[in-house]
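Pilot study result, target chain (99 residues):
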Amino acid sequence: MEVQKTSKGLDFHLVGLQTKITNQAERLKRGIVNDEYYTFEEMILVAIVAELIEEYTVLLCRLVEHLFHEAPFPRRIRFLILSSLPVAFSTPPLLPAPA
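Predicted structure:
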């Protein structure tokens, strides 16, 4: 997750963390790390670590989603932040009908 500061205030950019980690995990599962090949035992350990990283990323995205659902930001900014999460976020709560 990256936060970039601009002259107009804070501009939140959640970089495609899930995509980057998934791509790296796929490379690790295939045994391609710096064009070196590993033994079977090492590959099992690498696959386990790759799965843990993927699960951690999903958990981290859910935590960020939970934090920003209740954050004191305008609705549009919250929507932009939540929609830029690398995993699909749950549907936002329905707005009450106008009176």
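One observation from the pilot: DSSP finds three helices and two strands in the chain. A full batch analysis is planned for the follow-on phase.
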